[in-house]
Amino acid sequence: MKSFEDLFAELAARAIERPEGSGTVAELDAGIHTIGKKIIEEAGEVWIAAEYQDDEQVAEEVSQLLYHLQVLLLARGLTLQDVYRYL
Ligand SMILES: N=c1c2ncn([C@@H]3O[C@H](COP(=O)(O)OP(=O)(O)OP(=O)(O)O)[C@@H](O)[C@H]3O)c2ncn1[C@@H]1O[C@H](COP(=O)(O)O)[C@@H](O)[C@H]1O
């Protein structure tokens, strides 16, 4: 099973290698404004899932929010360590 750190390493490699068809590359190219809107959208879906949907749907929505947060970090040139120092 993929961990949070595994996903970040995979996305960082996508940003460097830029494989064709990568949604991550497309999102990075779209820029901070677009990524920020995805984060807001996914955060809303997490909230709705938590109030009205089952555990599996909550977990899936949270995974999508975490993905977009990681893309935002990469877009800003930040690492997980930059975040962990505040945890
Ligand atoms: N974990 C994710 C992941 N979570 C969410 N998403 C994206 O976030 C979107 C959110 O899903 P929704 O159901 O809200 O989709 P949607 O609103 O219809 O999406 P769009 O219309 O915005 O495409 C999806 O369309 C995916 O593009 C992800 N995209 C990729 N990954 C993983 O990231 C890695 C790299 O992916 P690529 O860069 O695409 O190769 C792979 O391991 C993927 O599994």
UniProtKB/TrEMBL annotation:
Molecular function (GO) terms for this protein are: ATP binding; phosphoribosyl-ATP diphosphatase activity
Q: Where in the cell is it found?
A: Cytoplasm
Chief location bin: cytoplasm
Q: Which reaction does it catalyse?
A: 1-(5-phospho-beta-D-ribosyl)-ATP + H2O = 1-(5-phospho-beta-D-ribosyl)-5'-AMP + diphosphate + H(+)
Q: What EC number(s) does the entry state?
A: 3.6.1.31
GO CC, sorted alphabetically, is: cytoplasm
Please verify whether the record's keywords include Lipid metabolism: no
Q: In which pathway does it act?
A: Amino-acid biosynthesis; L-histidine biosynthesis; L-histidine from 5-phospho-alpha-D-ribose 1-diphosphate: step 2/9
Q: Which UniProt keywords apply?
A: Amino-acid biosynthesis, ATP-binding, Cytoplasm, Histidine biosynthesis, Hydrolase, Nucleotide-binding
Gene3D superfamilies (alphabetical): MazG-like
List the GO biological process terms. L-histidine biosynthetic process
Q: Which InterPro entries match?
A: HisE (IPR008179), PRib-ATP_PPHydrolase-like (IPR021130)
Q: Which family does it belong to?
A: Belongs to the PRA-PH family.
Q: What is this protein called?
A: Phosphoribosyl-ATP pyrophosphatase
| Species of the source | Rarobacter faecitabidus
Q: In the record, what lineage is assigned to the organism producing the protein? A: Bacteria, Bacillati, Actinomycetota, Actinomycetes, Micrococcales
Q: Which gene encodes it?
A: hisE
